[in-house]
Design goal:
Shape: elongated
CATH topology of the largest domain: Rossmann fold
CATH architecture of the largest domain: 3-Layer(aba) Sandwich
Number of helices: 11
Strand order of the largest sheet: 2-1-3-4-5-11
Number of domains: 2
Order of helices and strands: HEHEHEHEEHEHHEHEHEHEHEE
Helix content: 40-55%
Distance between the termini: 59 Å
Number of strands: 12
Strand content: 15-25%
Length: 289
């Protein structure tokens, strides 16, 4: 190794995409960077979307001692390369086949269940879950399916009708069309479905569309988002959310990196961080269970 032998470096590979949850990724990147610096290592941030080529390039050139991968897909093309490398690789995310790599992630299945349980506790008689943009669905990002699975299972357990809306793009026309479907399901007593918004990039647009219709979350309908706490708290109104736990997940991922560096003989492990719901003004207190 050349420069990497003089200054230890951890690579963080984060493919940015216009449809990606870029706002949601930033707290993870910041937390990983801080954790790496606390171990007296530098961070090499790789943001292109060349997949396996990016990973092979930074390792073949001796640029890094270890790698953290984000935006993990269900069938991630980077995994065969990751398994063949001589440096530790840790995933923030959980692929369909995690053999040979360490993974740290939020338990998104439990997160989906938490969101539905909150809406049920508000007295909602049905739930609508916004789909992610088609580009993310097509990429097979693992947490999308796991969050949805948890929401569907919890709704079924409670006997609560739940509709998963087709992929909702970020433009206003797509948001309005999705809301038209939701609002058409107002029951005979005037109760609207509870709304689950799992994509942080969509939140501002959905709230604007609701506001233009004279609808206030927590007053006219109950809304739960999946997003970082800082994002949920600064919106108007502040949203009840299930957190992606960027601090905890990133801290554990960094710990896993340095554990693998110190003890390369240890087998890879999977860590799932329990989700946490923070109640704000977008969910009401009526009929709370």
């Amino acid at each position: 190794m050349s420069s990497a032998s003089r200054t230890p470096v951890v690579g963080l590979v984060v493919p940015f995409d216009p449809a990606s949850d870029n706002a949601g990724m930033l707290p993870f990147i910041d937390a990983v960077a801080r954790g790496v610096r606390e171990h007296d290592h530098d961070l090499l941030l790789v943001t292109s979307a060349d997949g396996p080529e990016d990973l092979r390039r930074i390792c073949d050139r001796g640029l890094v001692h270890a790698v953290v991968l984000m935006e993990v897909e269900e069938d991630d093309a980077r995994l065969p390369v990751a398994r063949s490398l001589d440096v530790p690789v840790v995933l923030i995310g959980l692929p369909g086949d995690p053999r040979g790599v360490s993974c740290v992630d939020v338990d998104f299945t439990a997160g989906g269940a938490l969101a539905v349980a909150e809406l049920a506790g508000c007295g909602c008689r049905s739930v609508a879950l916004f789909g992610h943009p088609q580009a993310l669905v097509d990429r097979g990002i693992g947490y999308i399916e796991r969050f949805e699975r948890g929401a569907v299972a919890e709704a079924a357990r409670r006997g609560l009708p739940l509709q998963v809306l087709p992929p909702v793009e970020l433009d206003r026309g797509s948001v309005d069309a999705a809301l038209d479907v939701v609002l058409s399901q107002e029951d005979d007593d005037g109760v609207l479905p509870g709304l689950v918004l799992p994509h942080p990039e969509a939140l501002t647009g959905v709230l604007a569309a609701l506001r233009d219709r004279g609808l206030v979350p927590g007053v006219h309908l109950d809304v739960v988002a999946q997003c970082p706490d800082a994002v949920a708290a600064r919106l108007s109104p502040p949203l009840t959310n299930t957190s992606q736990e960027p601090e905890d997940v990133s801290r554990r991922a960094v710990e896993a990196v340095f554990r693998r560096l110190a003890h390369p003989e240890e087998p890879p492990a999977i860590e799932l961080v329990g989700p946490r719901l923070t109640r704000r003004s977008s969910t009401s207190s009526r009929d709370r269970l």
